[in-house]
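Notebook, student rotation project (T.W.).
Task set for the rotation: take a protein with a known small-molecule partner, predict the structure of the complex, and write up what can be learned from the model alone. Partner molecule chosen: zinc ion. Sequence and SMILES entered below by T.W., checked by me.
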Amino acid sequence: MEPFIRTDQYHYIKSQAMHMVHSHSSANDKGVLRVVTDLAMEKVTGYGDWTEEQKIHLTPLTGIKDRGDAELFLNALKSYVIPFDEVSEAGLKKLFPKAKKLKLPDMEIDRKETTYLGWIDKNSGKMFIVAPYKGKRKGLQGTFSSLHKKGICTICNGHEEVGLFVTEIKGKEQGTFIKRGNYICSSSEACNRNLKSLQQLEDFVELMS
Ligand SMILES: [Zn+2]
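Predicted structure of the complex:
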């Protein structure tokens, strides 16, 4: 079967699998566990436009009792995750035509856990983001100043080490610029792990561009 799960959906399913593990370690009541299981399954099947055939691959979620079960389930599910499409040098130039000598970020990442790319360019010190947006790709660039403490990230809503990401966009009048700033995770790897909603990322992209 073709991969059919988006990375953000995978992280959502993962959170539900971990919720199952937690529930089994803290509750013994069979009735309670049945409700928890039914709810988790309902949430997961309702998190995408899955076909009946695709849903079959999600049902082992109901059998999860411990961490080992969850790992087995998630490993099996990973073969159905759509990986982040690699960015070519040409693709990067197209996204950031004005950025000089911009190098591709380290792609030694788990592309099945990656929804967007975020990195600081060593040459310019600027932050670059390549994110999916309404079926296409969009590039954001700006400055990033670390806060060196934890806060809520605008992209993933996680509580992580954050920093202020500021972009400059053209104002309505020619030659004017408007600054937009938001706190986001310092580590894009952590951010991607937390990101359970593509919509949230698209909202962020819209806000910043
Ligand atoms: Zn984040």
